[in-house]
Every structure is written in structure tokens, then in C-alpha cells.
């Protein structure tokens, strides 16, 4: 695990995050990379400029660099063999060690350290992409790939890609809803099940205001939470639930409103989930009382 040298990065005028090494001269670069030169130990320095990465690698005897295959053609870069072993080193592994070359990349043997390139094309816009892709996989297009020192695709991949271009993509490609990264406060994540035209059950994700009886204070992409007993939210998009006033209760979760206690019952504390009966000789009237009063002289009331 290598930390980024984040303290040495800044945003340049195009809005890209770059490292200050990008603009140092040779002497300043060597001074920075030297032990005690100011950088964070064992940190990762990203750059889109391969010539700069090569310069930094050559200035630091303990550095490791990752380059595209085209850069290996330079005399100062030597490719090393790697193996699919996450535990043992190259001297101890029993796995086959493969060095990057035109042959090993073309036949798929060099598969440990590589990434695939996926092209996402809108089915309705295939007519715009087809000519470009057809040329790219043609003999002339593959010659252009070779000119840049990269490796042309092998016959099997080329045949599969040409077939996909002729088919104009995947006509059964289906919309896949991705949950949003966040939903505003008072707005919750909703997963709506539906069945597509091919009979596959799917989910569609949206952010919708919390319904009455629910609330959400954070901006996370999460569902709204139901109010607890004794609490309520009487409007859509509530940030938090309110406590019922004395004399009113909410007996269930997710209540949009509180209910007044009936006659001869009371709720003394805010946030009550149930009403209590007045004792014998006490009365609470009309509805919605927070306490019971003694019966007037000349009258009485039995408990219950």
C-alpha cells in the first residue's frame, strides 16, 4: 500500500490534480527524491506524462514505475517478468513468470498485470460509432496501433469484435439503475421493483421526499426512517421527527400525526406513546389532557 504524496499536489489552471515534481528542473527533482528531500516516505506520485515518470524513476534507485507497453521500446526501460502469486516473490514463486512482449500479450499469456478496455455505446447511436470501430479493427487500423508501439489484437479478439460491430451491439441490453451517491436531507432512497420486457425482475432507484411519518437528516443515499412511537412528522420531506405534545400520543412507528387522549385519560410527558387512565375520583375532560383533576364537590367517578 502506497500513500499518495498529497501534500505535494495542487490543482493547476485546467482543473487537474498534479504533483509539484511536474514543474521542477532536474536539480530540484533530484533534491526532492533524495532521502530526506521532503517527500512522504513510500508514497505514490501519479502523472499522465510518461517522460516525467521515467525521469523520476531514474533519479530514485529504489523506485518502481508502471508504464504502458509502448514505453518499453525505449532503451532505458527494462521489463521484468511477473507471476500470478500474491504471496511469494518472483524468486520463490512456483507460478510461471511472464515477461511482457508482443507475443505474450498477443496470445494472452501476459495476463497478470493488464486491464481490459470496454466501450459503452448507446444502442440508438451505433451508426455513429460503427465506422470508427470498423476502421480500428481493420488491417489499416491495426497497422496504426503497431505504429504507436502497442500490440494489435489477436485474431480471436478481432473476430469477436468485428462480429459485435456487425450486430450493432447488444440489442437486448437493458437499463441498469445505479443507486445515487447521495440524496438530500429530507429525501430518501427508494427502490422500485419492476419487470422489464424480457421478464427480468429489476430495481429502479430514485431519491424521493420522505413521506409523512418518516424523516431523514443526513445526505446519505439511504431510506427515510419511520418516526418512533411518541413522535410524528406531519409533512413530506421532514428532516427530523417531532415529539407529541403532552395530552397527545403516537402509539405506532411512522405516525404522521399525534392523537389526543380520550376523556378521563392523560399523557403527562411529551413524546408519549400511550395514554394513562385517571384514578378513581379524578377526571380529565375534554380530550387531550396532560393531567387529571379531582372531581368537583358533589360528584364522583369510579376508576376506568
UniProtKB/TrEMBL annotation:
Gene3D superfamilies given in the database record: Periplasmic binding protein-like II, Tumor Necrosis Factor Receptor, subunit A, domain 2
Record-linked SUPFAM superfamilies: Growth factor receptor domain, Periplasmic binding protein-like II
Domain of life: Eukaryota
InterPro entries: Growth_fac_rcpt_cys_sf
PANTHER family for the chain: INSULIN-LIKE GROWTH FACTOR BINDING PROTEIN,N-TERMINAL, SUSHI, VON WILLEBRAND FACTOR TYPE A, EGF AND PENTRAXIN DOMAIN-CONTAINING PROTEIN 1-LIKE
Protein name as it appears in the record: Tyrosine-protein kinase ephrin type A/B receptor-like domain-containing protein
